[in-house]
Amino acid sequence: MRALLVVNPAATTTSARTRDVLIxxxxxxxxxxxxxxxxxxxxRDLGRRAADDSDIDLVVALGGDGTVNxxxxxxxxxxxxxxxxxxxxxxxxxxxxxxxxxxxxxNEPVEATGILLDALREERSRVVSLGLAAGTPGTEDExxxxxxxxxxxxxxxxxxxxGRVEQQRERxxxxxxxxxxxxxxxxxxxxxxxxxxxxxLERPDQDPVENLVMSIVCNTAPWTYLGNRPxxxxxxxxxxxxxxxxxLSKLSMSTATRYAxxxxxxxxxKGPHGKHAVSMHDLTDFTLHSKAPxxxxxxxDHLGLRTSVTFTGVRRALRVIV
Length: 322
Prior knowledge:
Strand content: 25-35%
Oligomer: single chain
């Protein structure tokens, strides 16, 4: 087997020594090419190269969710084809590692590597769904390139939080859960449209849902993790179905406290609920419009401001070794 290992040297939870151990373990089982990423988008370029190389059987991402997202977008640059594209695997190296944990891997990279090697020996894999987001035709975002996401996207409040976190990290702050919680509070206090939202959900042959304050699109559950605690924004979301969505129509102090508490105490059986919560399951095609530009994120990567995003849930898009 010929494999490409894409290594993010800035991965927050792996040292150079740990990466060397992981590389040695993988190289003992396959013909391994190791490439260290050098710039933003490099992992995507490497995934694209692997997709176009018929001799590569497997691409492994060693890094966090951002590295995973880039590699997946490179692999699927010509569209999903799980029977003919290289298989994909991940060794968690980031601060949260939602995708790796959602497919059943432990959050510890050495242990995850052992499971990956066992899966390869036993020819164990699964084909997962993915989400695709694109600029909406007929809007100012029409020319925005489409992009795949593996576990979530956000339009509005949560994307604003991620943007704030990224700004803090650029200033040298460590990516910690405390940092995220501080930015949640700051985003809430600065949110100008908490009482009446500006987002409209449109679905084919359905009435629009208007005045949404924020929206979270999930491709799997959990939505994220706080330490070892899974957080379920859309508990029914699954790698075997389309996309799920949780939206809020109000974000006052009382409703924010209520829904934050529900998120923190959520379970695989029960997520946020109430008259200001809009939950939808197994969506295939829908569009979110905003009356003003809002922050947008995919897989925890802040992508700037958008006024309209069209989403597609694509079943059986990627084969993952796990």
